[in-house]
Amino acid sequence: MKILFLFIFTINTYAYFDLSFNASGRTYPSAGGEIGLESGYNQLLWGEGNPKNPLYGFIRPVIKLSSSGVINTAEGRLEFYPVSFLGFVKKYQTVKSDYDQFSFYDCDDVNCKGLIKRDSTIMKLALGAFGVIALGELEFSQNTYDVDKENQPMAEFRFAMLADSKDDDFYRSRYVFAIKHKSGLIGVASEYAKFSNSKQSYNMDLLIYTHTADRSNYTFGIGQFYSTHVAQGLIGVFQMKTNFMKSLALF
Q1: In 91-127, which positions are buried (b, 16+ CB within 10 angstroms) versus exposed (e)?
Q2: Helical segments of the chain, H only
Q3: Average of pLDDT values for 35-52?
Q4: 81 SS3 class
Q5: Over the stretch 208-238, which tens digit does the pLDDT of each residue have?
């Protein structure tokens, strides 16, 4: 009994909350952005939890809220990292759109307003050596939609695609290859996604530059955006994250 109590007490001494602010924006297929808050509970399972030594594991339940004003998102995740550079995530996300003025949709023929519900499973991997970083992420999501016009497709505006408004499975992959510089990274990033029922797909390829200052990380990117629904175009993206209380997650 004493050993069990000591074990529980030891784990609890390595548990803490994190809190961060996020902002992002893009220029194509139309200019837009959103802000958000994220908080997680970091439970160290083994190791020291020191980013300089990646040999540790942890569990992190997360709540994230974000908004563009007319599109609002609530998200819950359970992240499990058996080791800090390999993660498995279960994510539940609800997106509510009250916007019907998208320049790349005819909202008379498409459900621009409505509720998107995602049930996602994600695997993440990060590798690095000699100043070179490689990141990979795979996601499978079962999506359902609550819309007014069930005979019309759903606007998946994040990817500028159309989905089956009843339900549509979703596959996404993302890769980053970068080199460290004095205050961040410089490299390339690529993201691909496809819906199972509508058969629509999306691709974005970027040159990226990141800069870290104090508690904040800034990412700037420029490249090409293409989907089945919109023509290929030049895109600029921006992301910012400020850690008020930092998590154990490395990426």
Answers
A1: bebebbbebeebebbeeeebbbbbebbbebebebebe
A2: 2-12
A3: 95
A4: strand
A5: 999 999 999 999 999 999 999 999 999 999 9
Tokens read off for 96? 């509510």
Domains, the chain, in order of start with CATH, read 2-245 (2.40.160.40)
Confidence of residue 13 (pLDDT cuts 50, 70, 90): low
- 139-167-80 Cα angle (round to 5): 25
Judge whether 91 and 122 are in contact, CB under 8 Å.
Answer: yes
Contacts of 113 (CB under 8 A, 6+ apart): 97, 98, 99, 100, 107, 147, 148
What is the helix (H) or strand (E) element at residue 117, kind and residue range? strand 114-129
Record the tokens describing residue 132, joined without a space: 């070179």
The b-or-e profile of 148-185 (16+ CB within 10 A means b, else e) is eeeebbbbbbebbbbbbbeebebebebebebeeeeebb
Q: What is the Cα–Cα distance from 29 to 119, expressed in whole angstroms?
A: 26
- 155 close to 102: Cβ distance less than 8 angstroms: yes
Helix (H, G, I), strand (E, B) or coil at 7: helix
Q: Classify burial at 189, counting beta carbons within 10 Å of its beta carbon; exposed 0-12, middle 13-18, buried 19 or more.
A: buried
3-state secondary structure of 6: helix
Q: Which two tokens stand for residue 213?
A: 């200052």
